[in-house]
Amino acid sequence: MATMNTTAQMEAQQHFTKLTNCRNRKRLKNSLCGYSHVVSSTYTSISLWMCLLTVVFCLVALCPYPARALMLDARGRLISQHPRCRDARLKDATKMADVVVSGKVVKLLQDEAHSTIDHRMMKGEIEVKRVFKGENMVDQMAEIMPGRLRPHKMVMVEGFGDPGICHNSVRERDTKIFLLKPNGNGELKLNSSVVTLTLRNLDYVDAVVHSEYKGDNRQDGS
Ligand SMILES: *[C@@H]1O[C@H](CO)[C@@H](O)[C@H](O)[C@H]1NC(C)=O
């Protein structure tokens, strides 16, 4: 054993010396150097293939989403990367909606009637905080619930999970701005993305609604 070890060590030592020598002298045609050259070029081509395979894999994996919708809101911020949604600017979306409210999602329910295998749709009970637009419609549709401080209006909103809407999901207890249309069944549905509740967004939506009414004589009569 000991001799074998020593022999092996000596061989390794020689091998190393030859390698070092041939590197030092740049004698690449030396058989040992040639061998190491073959090994390293094998590694090189393996890593090249790995690289190529990775690139091909990435291309194939990303293929279903070539045209992601990259939407900007009224201030040019990116608001969506949903693959198939279309979204209007907040200004246009506000004008397009018949009802604009801020409110809190009190409860989310499965919307079996509108769900498909691909898309689970939800509807939500929204506690209305402030009505920017469509007060009459809200009053017609809302249920008045007694509250701790004062009664509040509850409306049912459907369309959460709608793949045609970019920001289409909420969680219970979220407070958001909702841009809505009547759904034809005495309830409301999302017409565009759910809007984050910030002071700027509140002011902005308010300003758009006001400028709209200034132009056409407060059509909803509120
Ligand atoms: C929003 O309302 C407009 C105008 O009625 C309509 O064309 C559009 O399809 C609605 N969007 C959604 C997601 O329902």
From TrEMBL:
GO cellular component: plasma membrane
Keyword Protease in annotation: no
Keywords of this entry: Membrane, Transmembrane, Transmembrane helix
Coiled-coil positions: none
Gene Ontology MF terms: laminin binding
Gene3D superfamilies attached to this UniProt entry: 2.40.50.120
GO terms (BP aspect): receptor clustering
Domain NtA, first and last residues per copy: 85-219
Positions of transmembrane segments: 46-67
Pfam families: NtA (PF03146)
Record-given protein name: Agrin-like
Organism listed in the record: Plakobranchus ocellatus
